[in-house]
Design brief:
This protein is α/β, with parallel strands linked by helices. Helix content is 44%, strand content 10%. It has a domain of 185 residues: P-loop containing nucleotide triphosphate hydrolases (Rossmann fold, 3-Layer(aba) Sandwich). Strands 2-3-1-4-5 form a 5-stranded parallel beta sheet, with helices on both faces. The longest helix is centred in the N-terminal third of the chain and has 25 residues.
Amino acid sequence: MSKQKTKNATTAKKARHEEAKLPKKPKLKKKKKKPFTKKFYEEELFRLQLELVKLQAWIKEKGLKVVVIFEGRDAAGKGGVIKRITQHLNPRICRVEALPAPTEREKTQWYFQRYVSLLPAAGEMVLFDRSWYNRAGVEKVMGFCTDEEYREFLRSCPEFERMLIRSGIILIKYWFSVSDAEQERRFQSRLHSPHKLWKLSPMDLESRTRWVEYSKAKDVMFAHTDTKQSPWWVVPSDNKKLARLNCISHLLSQIPYEDITPEPIELPKRTHHSGYVRPPMSDQTFVPDRYGGGYDFNEENYDELEWDPDD
């Protein structure tokens, strides 16, 4: 028995010796996430906005047609993301559509009719700040449509979107998800901020009392319209800044594009025409100089004044 133990100990010792000769596996270092500071947010947002400018150029060059839908509860942060997306873009290429309540005439049309005229042509991107999904949300919850109209929407919406995709439109849908507590905090902020008070409508206030009804309507809407061809992308938005970065980053990933930024442009020198005489400054009507220092110039060198390019 002792001989067997000695043999086993020797074998184990040899195994440890051989194992020691093997190269050790490198330890994987976990990448440390950068702290989410204001500086990081502003730098990353600016970087993403520069990529949006490149995407815009690609959309125009290739004649793409892009539709991005932003839906979610009131005060979920949709408007803030849209503002950051469009901040440095050309409004002739990327435009925002936020339709008011339908007129009496529009109520008699095919439901999707008033949205069709707003769809993009080649080389355009349209951002819908709320969309045809009003019927599945506010119209259903607030009783602005009949049960039959609601059921017809759930049946026809997926086919309508498949038609758009088959026509060559790139359709991307975002749902901004905000918690009850955070929505309450944002509503309170709007109540006490004069420059934000316009954001609170009677419909917004009513939605607070129908939280569960809106949740149920959203669940049914997802069940019918979250398709493989046109999925819903959910954006958690309790943290507005994170939501903006995550949404813009994802949007950029959904449309393959290349950087076709033109070569640096050399600004030509202005041609001076000695025969041209500018009318006297006294003939022009200026806005009042309420803040001082803006209108102290000499008529003779008016053309030579250097203006701030950011003005």
